[in-house]
Amino acid sequence: MPTLNAAMLAVERHIGFPKSRARQVAQRLQEAAILPRGAPGIAPELEPHNVVSLIIALAADTTLWQAPSTVASYRALTPAGVDLTGAPASIDTAGGALDVIADVAIHGDADHWRRDSLSVVSGWPEILIENATTGKATRFVQPGADASHWQSRGHRKSTTINISAFVDCLQDLFQKD
Q: What's the predicted TM-score (pTM) here?
């Protein structure tokens, strides 16, 4: 398992978020028990879903004190704002969808994901996964929200991550030759 420091370095190298910011955000996520703390003299080891949570927090461009609640709310976003109560398990939240991409990146053939992109909107809770091959976009918003409309007045500010960089980051951390 990779350490938190290795994850921050991989995120900086592949995705471009500065390690200094990642360290501050990670500390807040550790305080909220979203990321593991480790033990005295032992660095915290991360699972793939922990790295995904760190990337969500960094991409959402939120204040430090809001980072834990932002990760929780963005992970709970649903496709097109659908209420998932009683829905089949095959319909997943944004956090679950990103965890699946991470799992495929680590254990499967992630080549079909490499042209796609991931946009994390920071003006309101929204995650957009765009499939470059089919042109289809899956928009995850809060349950009950209309995914075809802006959720707030003002500008839409988002961070777009090439899924190729996302995949490379996870493979660098979890695939050992």
A: 0.91
Read off the pLDDT of residues 160-174 as tens digits, 9 standing for 90 and up: 999 999 999 999 999
With 0-12 / 13-18 / 19 or more C-beta atoms within 10 angstroms meaning exposed / middle / buried, residue 54 is: buried
With 0-12 / 13-18 / 19 or more C-beta atoms within 10 angstroms meaning exposed / middle / buried, residue 141 is buried
* C-alpha pair distances (Å), 130 with each of 34, 47, 53, 141, 160: 27, 25, 19, 14, 10
Torsion on CA atoms 115, 84, 102, 69, rounded to nearest 10:
110
Residue 141 pairs in a beta bridge with 78, 126
Q: From residue 94, how far is each of 5, 99, 114, 153, 170 by CA, in Å? A: 25, 8, 18, 23, 17
Query: What is the residue extent of each domain of the chain?
Result: 4-174
> At 89, which helix (H) or strand (E)?
none
